[in-house]
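Below: protein 1.
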Amino acid sequence: MTTRYTLGKRQKLKSRKQIGELFAKGIAFNQSPYRVLYLLSAKHNASLQCGVAVSKRSFKRAVDRNRVKRLTREAWRLQKTSLEKALDQSGLQLSVFLIYTGRELPAYPFCFEKAGAIVQKLIRTIHESIAKGA
């Protein structure tokens, strides 16, 4: 079976209600230059949803903000499969919001490396929550 590296409509975090709940109840950590908010909950419809934001204060031009978001989503799309497998095994849902806090325009390999580190940290968090629940 081949792995499909997609980031479809159901995997994007777009609901104001879910985003508000994530910012109110979520847990945050820093993986420089990203600030990551996540919330583990009982499974609803999609097991993994992700949102990306870039500050207007850091990047005045929308072209630059959109580029950072596009690079981040692409790096996330290619590396999230191991995280999805861990979520399927645990039966949990994960909402993640990546906020880029850096001041300079990143290169794609840098975004790819940081997204991989974020995914690994989230996988460890899922395994720890399973161990606590058992």
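Below: protein 2.
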Amino acid sequence: MSNLRSKYQDRRREFLKQGACVALLGSGTAAMSGKLQLISSAMAQSSGYSDLTDYKALVCVFLYGGADSFSMFVPTSDAEYNQYAASRSSLSVPQRDILGTDSALGFHPSLSRLHSLYKDGNVALMSNVGNLVTPVTRGALLNNTAEIPSDLFAHNHQQAQWMKGHSSLPASIVQSGWGGRMADLLQDANAGSVLPPSFSLFGSNSWLPGNTIQPLALNTNNGLSLMSYLDTGTSANNSARSALHDSVLGQNYSHPLKQQAADTIARAKLGSGQLRSVISANQNFETGYNKGSRLAKQLRMVATLIAGRDQLNMKRQVFFVGLGGWDTHDHQTPRLSGLLTELDSSLADFYATMDELSLTDSVTTFTASDFGRTLTINGDGSDHGWGGHQLVMGGAVNGNNLFGQLPDFEIAGDDDSGDKGRIIPKLSINQYGALLGEWMGISGSDIATVFPDLVNFGSDWKDGMELFNG
């Protein structure tokens, strides 16, 4: 198996270059831009990230359905709270129940453990983040001069645009996500690994696929199963079959597509065996997780893969987990309380596990969602909105801080896109993601490639935000 591993690793980079060139030569003018992008990404395999020696992981927690973050995080000053309560009516969190902070936003009472992590400096809040092409004002929206993303307020389109991070184009045109574009660059940091740096515990999504690196989708119970007929631990016949299989895969093929087929199967075989070994060896955490929570199970598997980082030869890893149910058009108050309780315990347990592993400074977890929700009430729920608040968790985070500008909570006020309390975002997905990408070690020039709309927010796109310590 070691010879097969060596041959696969030597041939992989060469195929990326050859395969991209073959694809370009066989394409028409209409496809030229995409193929050039593929070649650029293939060449980026030698991008200079191989000299990264520390370990870092980024974990995206996607809240499917459009999380009502205006109830998750609530203004604390009397003036702002009164404006908020007037707009939200019966959806507003009672002021007496808010878990207070030293900043302008407090926490929903169901987020008590995350509130404690915030107070301890391990969680920060990002105010009013959303899908933007350029900065937008209410006036420009009302006179139809604003450049806005396509298909606002539609679940599937906004999920894809959030994850792909290229708001100036329809989601169907963009083939990669910003997590995947980071993985394309950071793969070089994982010298000796046969696995990609990107893992999904919530099936397929638009955030993790890169232009060259494709993620692994894993089962929360056992990761990635071995091929049953090649599992050498079950029978002597399988051992013989596996050895013959290695011999076939180890041949040198002159055609790059044949070589890619052999290398892909070799990668799957080596990777599945590695993963089973890592998962088996890294199950004994002191932190208990809620076994009835799908999110908790996903994060526990993420912790297992992080614990096995050295066995997997990983210096950089990117993970995706998800939790559905956030489309709270009705019965919002009780539904949201249950969702927030699950989110609170799952994230807090994950942080505690990173503390067990002495990796709190090396792992950053952040939330994202389709969109925020309206301030106005829709029966006994809320409707699809635009901007919303997000949280970032980790030991490297400059916590106990609120970043960004708190919106005006007045209906038809300065930050309302109309008269329903659909709040216009102040911070773009590209700004939010770029802060996380820089922490992962992505260089300034490559940040602009990973986040192509960042240029629309000027050279001062950080706006003084120091999300991370040091």
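The first strand starts at residue 56 and ends at 63.
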